[in-house]
Design goal:
Length: 218
Amino acid sequence: MNIKRGFTLAEVLITLTIIGVVAAITIPSLISGVDLDRKQADAVIKKTYTAFNDATKQIVMLETTSHSMGSVNCNDSNCIRDLYGKYVSYIKTCNSDAQTNCLDGAPATSESATTTMLMQPVWADPASAVEIDFSSKSLAVLADGTLVGFQYDNTCQQTVKSVIAYEETPVNITKACVAIAVDVNGAKKPNMVGRDRYQFAIGKLGVKFKAAAATTTP
């Protein structure tokens, strides 16, 4: 007589427990390799540029006599990063010639649409994807893991490729004192402009936005 034997309840529970443990270990690492969704990225970048805009106002009021970012006592990007560090909390910093510890394996130059499995969003210009990077900037890492890069021009005449209006492609902001590049999730992928990497410009008094388009009335 043939006796058919199935799995006991104990065996099923042990198997499910093992699957649960493996899933708990592997799923977070899989998720970390996927880019943030747009709402998450927007929330972090808004928090970041608000923090640096507020810090800029503190700097021009307390660190200068002429109340202009162009007259702070700094001659390079490392100095301006450290000056902002008095008003924005960092967990580590890296000078422009020693970036490895802050990049933590992330590429200094942003990935383009052709080097990732993820599609470039319609609100980021693939042709400009490699123009916002960290390769020549002084770096800092914020408490939430956001990577920030600084490039300073004490004449406030640099042109910054800025992604701050999320429905638009990167635009040139002129007469900027500081270019601040941001990677909202640090070394994690996709490291692409308009997804997890953004950049905004600081003028003499704070964040500089693209001028609104002129409207005409009939």
